[in-house]
Amino acid sequence: MIKWHDTHADQLRAMPDADLLAAYQRSSGEPGDVIADALLAEIKRRNLDI
Questions:
Q1: Contact 50, 24 (CB under 8 A)
Q2: Does the pTM of the predicted model rise above 0.70?
Q3: Which residues of 18-47 are buried (b: 16+ CB within 10 A; e: fewer)?
Q4: Distance CA 18, CA 11 (A)
Q5: What's the number of CA atoms in the CB half-sphere (13 Å) around residue 2?
Q6: What are the backbone dihedrals phi and psi of residue 12, each rounded to the nearest 5 degrees, phi first?
């Protein structure tokens, strides 16, 4: 399971696209979930399709 301390901004920026998308798919995806929100923000920043 993904832990918040594993999702710092620098680490998110360093993740390959495929890993980022897979991590988001494993998250709850619920609004207000800090992990899902951080992953989604990086996905949007990269303009990736979910």
A1: yes
A2: yes
A3: eebbebbeebeeeeeeebbebbbebbeeee
A4: 14
A5: 24
A6: -65, -45
**Cβ distance 23 to 39 under 8 Å?**
yes
Q: Tokens 């897979």, residue?
A: 22
Q: What are the sequence ranges of the domains in the chain? A: 4-45
Condensed to tens digits (0 to 9), the pLDDT of residues 2-30 reads: 555 555 788 889 999 999 999 999 998 88
**Residue 7: what residue type?**
T
């995806």: which residue's tokens? Answer: 29
Which candidate, 50, 37, 46, 47, places its Cα nearest to that of 13? 46
